[in-house]
What does this fold into?
Amino acid sequence: MAKRQQKNKSPKQSKKDPKKGNTYDKILKENFRELVVPLVFRQEGIDPIKSEPLPEELNSTISRKIDFLMRVLEKNGDESIVHIEFQTRMPRAMVYRVAEYHGFLLAKYKLPIRHFVVYLGKSRTKVPTELPKNLQFSGYKLIALNQIPFENLVKSKIPEEIILAIFAHYPKHDPERVARIILYRLKEVCKDEVSLRKFITQLTLLSQLRKLDGYVKQIADSMPITIDLRENAMVKDLIAEVQAEADVYRQQAEEQRQHTRAAILNLYQTLHLEPALIATVFEISEQEVLDILEAAE
It folds into this structure.
């Protein structure tokens, strides 16, 4: 009986504690916020003179039903959503309300949406019907840390950027070596033991996403007080290797771009395909196709 009771307890012990997982996610996001936001600002040339945090919970303000919504399939095969609102009065913020509807509808249906507001009032209305260009959403810029060369981050004198090297692009070296280089660079740039301990803690946490936390802990526990110059030589060797591989990677990427340009020009000049169709074939934007065609003229 005792053995049977022990077996019954084991599944409960193996269950993950959701509260513990939520706490980990919270700590992870807080560390990412502290490390990544400054990097994004520097990369994009954002230099605010003032900033303030905003609530991160997005609560829907759509508390009433949309007036009219229909999925439409046309003779040419195009499918879209038609949205119509009926207004007896035209609030100046109507365009923002429709923009809000657009976001929710697009996320739900993933189809082109055409919005119409039918005005039923007596007096003329001059409310804006389009958002200013700087408020229009046309996509986002992807910042993929695994495409940033390792040496660009590990050679930095900013501890936050050195930590992010754990997510950067580096050759398939022994992961222990990569972790060691990052730790020794942190030791070089940190001004005091308190800040060093703080950044090592952050590195240990974030390295779990690359399954390198075991190496980070082991190396951090055995780090000498003074920095071994031979380790610095190792850093230089790896940086040289990374730079050599990066040159090859950039050359291959350029060759691929040239091949794509040639294929696009061939489809346009020989088969006379429309830029929009070519963009669909290569999974790029129509504007990118137009830029290639314009540069070739």
Summary: The chain has a mean pLDDT of 78. Strands lie at 68-73, 79-87, 113-119.
